[in-house]
Amino acid sequence: MEISTDLLQDFKDRMHITHSSEDDNLKRLLSFSIVAIRSNCGSYEVEGETDIDIRARELVLERTRYVYNDALEYFEDNFLSELNSLGLSIAFEESDTDATV
Fold first, then answer.
1. I want to staple 1 with a disulfide (CB 3.0 to 4.6 A). Which of 31, 39, 49, 58 is the partner?
2. What single-letter DSSP state applies at residue 46?
3. Residues 40, 62: contact at Cβ < 8 Å?
4. pLDDT for position 96
């Protein structure tokens, strides 16, 4: 999965990382987080501009922060309501799209 420069820079800014020596590892961690959030919640565009896309991007960044800090086991408990809310929003959007087709 290709990680955009913007997404990588968003994460680095959030974490106050100013060097590029970890970029390959950070891209890998971001790609794992994108897949994990999609698996748990449903389809979204990490670079998209919809409410769902923005919320999903935020969860990707937060999950990656937990992974980076070796605390992934706490992510789901700490973000369970956001994960559930995003999953429901995606499911409702998909059902609305299916109903109009």
1. 31
2. T
3. no
4. 73
pTM exceeds 0.85 for this model = yes
Q: Which long-range contacts (CB under 8 A, 24 or more apart) does 81-85 make?
A: 82/55, 82/58, 83/37, 83/40, 83/41, 83/59, 85/55
Count of CB atoms situated within 10 Å of the CB of 94: 12
Positions of the chain with pLDDT under 70: 97-101
Q: How far apart are CA 86 and CA 88, in angstroms?
A: 5
- 46 sits in the region (left: phi over 0; alpha: psi -120 to 50; else beta) called alpha
Per-residue CA distances from 80 to 10, 11, 36, 41, 71 (Å): 23, 21, 13, 11, 15
Contact 49, 96 (CB under 8 A): no
Q: Quick one: pLDDT at residue 98?
A: 64
Q: Which residue has the tokens 């987080």?
A: 33
Q: How far apart are CA 34 and CA 65, in angstroms?
A: 13
